[in-house]
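Recall that a protein's primary structure is simply its ordered list of amino acids. Everything else, from secondary elements to tertiary packing, is in principle encoded there. The following example makes that idea concrete.
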Amino acid sequence: MMADALATTEPLFGAHGKALIVDLTERSSREEPIAPDVYRRFLGGYGLGAFLMWKHFAPGTEATAPEACFGIVSGLMTGARTPFSGRIQIVGKSPLTGTWADSNSGGSVASHLRRAGYDALIVKGKAAEPTVLVIRDGEVSFEPAAELWGKEIPETFDALKAKFGGRSEVGVSAIGPAGEKVSKIASVMNDRYHAFGRQGFGAVYGSKNLKAIVVSGSGEVPIKSPKRFRQLCQEVSSEYKRDIGWLMRIFVWFTTPKRFMGWFYRLFSKLGIKVEAPQPAMRQLWSDRGTTGAVAVSIENGDAPVKNWKGVGSTDFPLATKSYKLDGGEVDKMITRKLSCGDCPAPCKGIVRVKSRGLSDVRRPDYETICGFGASILNDDLDLVTACHDACNRYGIDAVSSSATLAWVCEAVEEGILSKAELDGIDMQWGNGEGALALTIKMGSGEGCGEWLRHGSASASAHVGKGSEAFAVTVAGQEPAYHDSRFTPMMGITYIADPTPGRHTAGSGSWQETFNVGFPLPNAVPESETAVKWKGTEGKGVAQAHFSNAHQVLNGLGLCMFTSLTGGLPWLDLVTALTGWDMDAKELLACGERIQNMRNAFNVREGFTPADFAPHPRMMGEDAGNLTSGPLKGVRVPLQSLKEDYYAAMRWDHGTGRLSKDRAAELGIGDILGEYVAA
């Protein structure tokens, strides 16, 4: 029996103890209580979301069917004004892969949801007409959205903010034209500038005729020890904002990529030398540049896949003449104002102006976007990269999948498989930034060739055929992100072992692998199981299992994954002050393991096995991925065997993916998983 919605008189801190269940078909809503024990076992965020999806998502239901549901869930610390906690988490089933799906975004929707009195929102059914779901404290309404249907994201958000509240008074989550047309790579945009990317959640909104969700709340999250909690939060913020001093500023300058230092980055990659930046310098770098500070280095040292995973950065897109044009320093020149997620002291994002394209009020492109619309297709025009990024956000499509699809198009053109005529007159050669922008807009609008490109490279290659399927680099139908598994095998393990195939955001163990920067929680396990060398693959499957569990703690608490790069937060002290729980690091890490197991069990219940998550040959250094020059020359990675090590550490059956019965009992989730455990 599931320990789910049992009534209790026990005081609850750090949570409200209820979810809001909305049925779009019936235009109805109800509150569902959540037992305190659920939070103690699963925290919030993905953990609470996986628990609720296990209960509410009927097995075998198509992701875009009216009967399907999805959840927007708050992390345990979100809405309590904890530093680095301005995150929104969505859970459900992916239209793109059919697997478990989740995504983590910035914005204020989850904070408003918490202040409205709810820890989670579950949306079911399908509206009869385009609809905006409005939640104001305890009141729910269903507003017509016919006048917004077909509108791009900026116009949609401006209209919703004007109608329902100012910039900070409401949180808004909405789709653009791509989601309306149920594109399987469609994103959901939050507070205009933040995305639920990957997995195709925009298609889920569109299939339900749900244009947007608007949330506002005026309440507070109950805190066990408010004075202590606020003190800890202030200490974290103060430390982050503390002046780093002249020595650290010199280090920051030195770590900024220089055109003449390509040889240095290649050498360190070839030798596998870890360079651990001091935490004060890392905080400054992150605040200044966010993810863009790593672009040029990553292209040069092999971290970023180039030319659809068959190129070499140092020769095909070298730092001295190409990639430096796309690095964070160049992006900085376009910034008009800095931007951060709610309750975050780090303005790692920004708004930019692109004069050559007539664009303003555009979110700064990030690492994945620049690598995708830059190095992956050999385009060194930052203005066009940013324009492609803006098109993704305006139409609401995933930047990784859309740019990877463009790389597939370039190779198909190179091989003579696709012609200009089939691409509506666009000559999509390598390096054609104008063509990339035109095709991105077509994918977003679904017009012309965009009609068959708009579901990603796996779908497009199946449509075209002629052997093009061989270079559609995907895992279970989803394109991997722009961190090369030949450079960081632990990221490769994540691509094929995490319940969300091709995803990089649970692969933060790779920071430990390459830069000796990791989460503090794995210290709850033997250091020998988490300390790995950069070169080689020994122990990396086991290490990634521990880091995966630690990462899910972050998600459960609602904290930004990049906090580990800037110095660990006092997690346990914050949890204790917030909830009153007497919990040690080992118990908190067990919560992360439960979350990871619930995510995986969803796939087991949907009929997936480990064999369905196979790496593309190029990801292992096989076929065209066997590079003949550069830092990754001749590198081959046995990802399948590393996945087996990961499964063994997680106690998952190699053939079925099921958690062992004994471990399920030890974690206290055997009652939930029931028949979906290994014998």
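The CA atoms of residues 22 and 638 lie 46 Å apart. The first strand starts at residue 18 and ends at 23.
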